Amino acid sequence: MNTETYQNKFEPCCLATTIGSLPHTDADRATRLMLESTPEIPSWVQFPKRDFHENMMMQFTEGLPALVQDGDRISFSTLAEDFAEQLTDFYERYLAATEENQNIKSRSDALDSFGLSPQYAIGFSEFMAKLAEPSVSGAAVMLKGQVSGPFTLGTNLVDQNGRCAYYDPQLRDVIVKTVAMKAMWQMTRLSTFGLPVMIFIDEPSLLGFGKMTFLSVSREDVIGDINEVTAVIHAKGGLAGVHCEENTDWSLLMETDLDVLDFDAYDHIQGITLYPAELTRFFARGGCLGWGIVPTLDKDAAETETVESLLARFEAGIEQFVARGFDRELLRRRALITPSCGAGGVLTEPLAERVLDLLRNLSTTLRTRYGFAQK
Asked: Is 109 a domain residue?
């Protein structure tokens, strides 16, 4: 199936996937847990408590030029004597990875320089190894990867003066292209299993867009940067999603070329319902919503919620959209079920495993109730 056809026909019908992180440190066990919980759309696991290299702001920095590490912190040094040489090397690798007139080995070698090594992402190599086992990959209909978004990475990385790298046009371009290459590298690796691939762009920092801290950042810049990453994913035949926090300006994301918008449907469903015209256009071009309905940011909620209570919350959320004129059946077909955020932050291992159980059982219940399980 070609890219355009698949993207236009993708309807998750309440299948489940994860955002990425777990609090575990045993990569083998955690990857198996994730595969058992989301067998249809599994994702590789991020392990922020296993190693500081797996911190969200560190994990996707391999391949960036002029980085200086001080303990577990990194920054750009644009004053380094070889800064120009490092930039030249970066763009040469980028061009070699993206230009079709390069031979296959040269392209592959260049793309590998932007890859995810086991030191930074042990979950990816574990995921690839498990998927090679026929008993594991047999239930999958799609594979999921993820990258830190260009806005989030660019506003958290700083230069030697402590200034956000996103404000430096050159550093911003380097960051956007690195994120795009990380997505391309994952697409290339995951596509070897013959399944469709979806890459989520994690943009928690977009919660601050439009506020005092980021007043100088334009809407057009953010949309353009996300679309540059999305275009690479689409060119490789994949779907592009985004995960954001709380009451992000969802109208901005509805103007991008993204295919899936994953929102916090547990605590902040109101925010995404505020833009009915933009959402109508998003659905019209085939867009889907990721319902982050299983709580991960509140230990008490993760411990006390049940499938029945989350089912009631989901259906109440559907009714909020219906009240604004959206079709109930369309909403159900275009719904992807996810945790409200990554589970690797505040949750213990037992609570994270409870979240995975809730996720799987809620998805199964919804699909049975709506008649999707038989399709």
From this structure: no
